[in-house]
Amino acid sequence: MTDETNAASPATETRGFKAEVSQLLQLMIHSLYSHREIFLRELISNASDANDKLRFLSLEQPELLADDSELGIWIEADKDKGTVTIRDNGIGLSREDAINHLGTIAKSGTAEFFGKLTGDAQKDSQLIGQFGVGFYSAFIVADRVEVLSRKAGEPVSAGVRWQSKADGEFTVETLDHAARGTTIVLHLKEDAKEFADSWRLRSLVRRYSDHIAFPVRMPKEGEATLDTEVVNQAQALWTRPRTEVSDDEYKAFYKHITHDGNEPLAWSHNKVEGRREYTSLLYLPSTAPFDLWQREASRGLKLHVRRVFIMDDAEQFLPLYLRFIKGVLDSSDLPLNVSRELLQKDAEVEAMRGALTKRGLDLIARLAKDEPEKYQSFWKEFGQVLKEGAGEDPSNRERILPLLRFTSTQDGSDEDKVALADYVARMKAGQEHIYYVLADSRQAARSSPFIEGLRARGVEVLLLGDRVDPWIMGQLHEFEGKSFQDASRGDLDLSKLADAPETPVDDTVTPEQQNLFKRMADVLGESVSEVRASKRLTESPACLTRDENDIGEQMRRMLAAAGRGDMPRGKPQLEVNLQHGLLALLPRLADDDFAGLTRLLFDQAQLTEQGQIDNPGDFVRRLNQLLVKLVPAAG
Question: Which one of 97, 195, 303, 474 counts the least CB within 10 Å of its CB?
Answer without folding.
Answer: 474
